[in-house]
Q: What sequence folds into this?
């Protein structure tokens, strides 16, 4: 059973292993002053919804352009699909 993690813009991220074709050094969570933890089971190829808490948003730059998601020391791609909380409980899909 998948759970929507309670964390306020909606962030969708796909847990996957991605190869980086960039010559730039890889970022890790150690490159950032603030960090948080997304708890719950993670599987490859699955779409997750995460609600960011107010303390996280207060530390983010405008538009959350400095937000990163890491898993097993690798950066995970994500997209912010909206930047509001309408109070509805998210739908859970198996």
A:
């Amino acid at each position: 059973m998948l759970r929507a993690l309670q964390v306020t813009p909606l962030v969708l991220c796909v847990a996957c292993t991605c190869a980086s074709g960039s010559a730039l050094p890889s970022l890790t969570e150690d490159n950032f002053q603030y960090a948080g933890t997304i708890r719950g089971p993670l599987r490859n190829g699955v779409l997750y919804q995460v609600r960011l808490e107010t303390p996280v948003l207060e530390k983010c730059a405008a538009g959350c352009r400095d937000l990163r998601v890491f898993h097993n020391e690798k950066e995970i791609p994500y997209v912010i699909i909206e930047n509001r909380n309408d109070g509805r409980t998210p739908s859970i899909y198996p």
